[in-house]
Task: structure prediction
Amino acid sequence: MNYIVPEFEIERNPNKCISCGACVRQCSYEVHYFDDDGKTVLADDSKCVACHRCAAVCPTRAIKIKKYDMAYKEHFNWTPTTQKEINLQAATGGVLLSGMSNNKPYPIYWDKILLNASQVTNPSIDPLREPMEIRTFLGKKPEKLEFDEDGGLKTKIPPQIQLETPIMFSAMSFGSISFNAQKSLAMAAKELGTLFNTGEGGLHPKLEEFKDNAVVQVASGRFGVHKQYLESGRFIEIKIGQGAKPGIGGHLPGEKVTVEVSNARMIPVGSDAISPAPHHDIYSIEDLRQLIWSLKEATCYKKPVAVKIAAVHNCSAIVSGVARAGADIIVMDGFRGGTGAAPTRIRDNVGIPIELALAAVDQRLRDESIRSCVSLVAAGSFRNSADIVKAIALGADAVYVASAPLIAMGCHMCQQCHSGKCNWGIATQRPDLVKRLNPEIMYKRVVNLINAWNHEIKEMLGGMGLNSIDSLRGNRLMLRGIGLSEKELEILGISHAGE
Amino acid sequence: MKKVIAREEHCLNCKLCEVYCRTAHSQSKDVIKAHLRENPVPVSRITVQGDNMLSVAVNCRHCDKPACVEACITGAMQKDPETGVVTCDESRCIGCMTCMTVCGFGVIKSGKFAVKCDLCQGEDMPACVKNCPNNALVYVEVGGAE
Result:
């Protein structure tokens, strides 16, 4: 007897199904199958994850995926999902796992913040007619500039990263995502003049050509880290925490550690790649400082070093410490950030929203007069260009996006990344699935998405009467809250709409 | 001449090329009617060989010196001297299928007449190429064949 009710139901329109079998061959979850007659297509609803691959590939749109309409006795507290999770754990005794990001209905502050626009007193700007600057520089900025008698610059400028857009691609390792997915992001980053991030998976030799657009990550497992790797990236990112699973390490199951993944990570084929929860050489800010300066020393002080932390309760104090430890860039990942796999309870209950963390951190660094010592990069779910504009006005120098470009590449948020069966060829290492993602097609879709967002950012800047993204950075006067409490407004550092 | 080139590294084994080939060569040109209402169901000129791990769509190569044209006993199988496209003139074909037996690629299908790829003459791009979801089929100039 099975206690678990299927989540979805396949509705196949017999007037449209031509029995071509594309759904049968495309479903890695083996939902669809031919009946004994070889013509009638049947489905096992219980296996469906609603990834929509079958519906997308069906040439006649004969397939509709519906919510499984099982009635439960109404109970506000013991919802069908709650009961299902209990039954899953009762059957297996295991920790619940999920992919992607926190799917609980916590407040999304981006939707409670409104942007300003110019009217009479300062004119708005049309970005199609006038120059509009969204070029972004990341890195430690000098406190003041000094010039010699001839007007030449005397101050030594620390290494800076030039980006043609404030949007970068977040860390997703080769291992958690497929080679083709990472290659698509690398190609897109090159065309857009921005950066992709290797995650903790090392840099695949075939992606060496994109090293000028790579951020190389050093995380607690130290997979794939060597001198050449450190020198390959534009900057080095020490990953302390991840928004989707603060306080938790990583675990790439052995079945995903193929020959290629093992080469990039420098671990045996088929072995589990376990990134510990802490870095075993970092138990204090002083230890982190040692690692930051060791990495700078190893790369002759040519590469900025970033530190990525999850947005948690005391993040402003933590970021202040990290800035003083010598980081050039600090990345904060909010609790809606994505992951290839996380314990469901951690994903849905740990961490805080990036909006509040970002505002608090930017204010703290300003209060301590060390804001210009670091660049702030916000991560943890930017759904559109307006979210990004609001983040920059709250104090971010740039943002990381990952879920949005994955959606552009086919992701339908089925949250089964941890299963390794991604039908869209993204979160999988199975060769028959990986090849479904053709980088030639997908990189272009990602480029289109970011170019569209760049246009929209320029339009919004123009509307505010600004002609440079630098004029928006930390400019909270451009923001107003709607439906927020006094405390929320205080933390965000913004006035309420109408004020 | 322009030919359909299959790139097996991108082929998904979805066989949509077959579906759209049948549709393009149907009476109705409608994907549902062609498969559910027409009798006989049109024959696909392209066939996906292999399985999900390794598959490739195979269709007529429109050879420079086509064995099928040489072997045709009625002169129905012809290679257009200008376009290079090899087609079967159904008004002359007697269905002896000698062409099928001599084709080195196994891309001629049997029916009342010999059935084979005509590169969707009159269209910008063959239906199989136009509808391939992963660019596993491309329609490119490969030279030769005049």
